[in-house]
Amino acid sequence: MELDGQIALVTGGSRGIGLAVARALADGGAKVAVVGRDAERAAAAAASLSGGGHVGLACNVASPEEVNYTVSRVEESLGGVTILVNNAGITRDNVLVRLKDEDWDEVIDVNLKGAFNMTRAVARGMMKRRDGVVLNITSVVGLSGNAGQSNYAASKAGLIGLTKSVASELASRGIRCNAIAPGYIETDMTAALNEAQTELLKERIPLGRLGSPEDIAGAVRFLAGPAARYITGHVLTVDGGMVM
Length: 244
Ligand code: NDP
Known about the structure:
This protein is α/β, with parallel strands linked by helices. The protein has helices at about 15-25, 40-45, 65-75, 100-130, 140-145, 150-170, 195-205, 215-225; strands at about 5-10, 30-35, 55-60, 85, 130-135, 175-180, 235-240. A seven-stranded parallel beta sheet has the order 3-2-1-4-5-6-7, with helices on both faces.
């Protein structure tokens, strides 16, 4: 299989999009380290993947110390990370004037600094091996902005800047870095939408439905694999045509 011999680390791999991504990479032959805040959920997710030999670890991606420790544990148990998927993300939505400092900081710390922490922690090994793929899960709102989500949209736009900078800086070391920008995907994150809101959203989506985690996982598996060997610094929207 195309990902045989690869070691993948998926943040937020215990639920939703991250779990579908972990499944797709394992189905492609990779050994996967599933990282999430909740240790039991991460371990259960790792045990559910095809192929065996995967690990689940608890780590808050916002903490550089926890991230460095987690990456060293993955390297000891599975080997050097060759595919990093920065997927962990949170929302703390509110209109600008009601947005609290802690809601701004937490979203930036998890969504943007978390990706920086992880990328920095795996980059040295990837540079030594002159091989690696970093994939950042951003959002279409990082491209378009969204009322009531200034913290979240800023974190996702920041991820796009991080993606392009890492792609430029590490291309000569054989490392590719791309971003995937999902539209509305059915997960816990979007579960609060009521039926009327969902119908309104569908009207804005040319393909006429919300996305599934598997829709994103397919794009990740492609960008992680050899078929994407000449793609770097790209933002791939996977949104049913919502933002063109
Ligand atoms: P979920 O809320 O379903 O899952 C979030 C995952 O991130 C969980 O595994 C959670 O772990 C983990 N996580 C959250 N905070 C941290 C942290 N500090 N450290 C480590 N892990 C953490 O989200 P989705 O699957 O919907 O979203 C995944 C990604 O896709 C996010 O980055 C999101 O912004 C992005 N996205 C989602 C869209 C959607 O419509 N759903 C649209 C566009 C982008 P635990 O289980 O332990 O809590």
